[in-house]
Amino acid sequence: MKLNERGLLVVLSGPSGVGKGTVRKSLFSQKNHNYTFSVSMTTREKRPGEIEGKDYYFVSKDYFEKKIKEGGFLEYTYFCGNYYGTPLDKVEEALDSGKELILEIEVNGCRQVKEKMIDAVTIFIVPPSKEALYERLKKRGTESDYQIQERIAKANSEFPLAYQYDYIVVNDSIENAADRIRAIIRAEHAKTSRSIYKYYEMLGDTETHGQE
Ligand code: 5GP
């Protein structure tokens, strides 16, 4: 029996090119998963194969800035020349439905989420080595040489920020990384701080305990 019915807000973060997207897709490919993906909004151009409303909501700079003014984002950032943000409207809805809400965002956005939602579980995905990440960025073939260099520089500034996260997961293989994340989510649900009230309710005891 699960003692906590509310879903977790799980932030997958880490340098660009580390494989956050692939690991996330692996989590979602498992049968009977209980995850919802938070589709971000961005002003960057759509890459071949990306689907509007599934990978991102692709919008203009004007539209994005209007949404910032309206307070429409849980967090947002300006990353390598483009805006990226998590639309607020779906967040509470998804968590109340009991599903884990998975955000796949960079480090600046993760910091904002942790400030606003203290309960969020933050996971820093790291490559097995720096070189592995550089190779991945180069081989991906989705960015120009200039953009690759820009992302490598950004990654180098993000590597040391791992200490800000609840967990570090090495993406040595997609399945290993996804397994570790599933284990983290299971363990987080069992945390006393998340389940104690539900537990007392189950005992039929509505008094608050633990304050003596
Ligand atoms: P890409 O252009 O490679 O899709 O994304 C660039 C970076 O922005 C990646 O590290 C990605 O995880 C991050 N990102 C994607 N969506 C969001 C978002 O909504 N907020 C923030 N802060 N970062 C995001």
General description of the model:
The protein is of the alpha/beta class. The protein folds into two domains: 1-34 and 99-212, 3-Layer(aba) Sandwich (Rossmann fold), CATH 3.40.50.300; 39-97, Guanylate Kinase phosphate binding domain (2-Layer Sandwich), CATH 3.30.63. The protein is 42% helix and 20% strand. It has helices at residues 20-29, 61-69, 89-96, 107-116, 130-140, 145-158, 174-189, 192-202, and strands spanning 9-13, 35-37, 40-42, 56-58, 73-79, 82-87, 100-104, 121-126, 167-170. The strands form two sheets. The protein has a five-stranded parallel β-sheet, with helices on both faces. Strands 4-3-6-5 form a four-stranded mixed β-sheet. A hairpin with a 2-residue loop joins strand 5 and strand 6 (82-87). Helix 5 (130-140) runs antiparallel to helix 6. The two termini are 28 Å apart. The mean pLDDT is 92. The structure holds guanosine-5'-monophosphate. Guanosine-5'-monophosphate (5GP) binds at residues 16, 20, 40, 44, 75, 77, 79, 84-86, 104-106, 108-109.
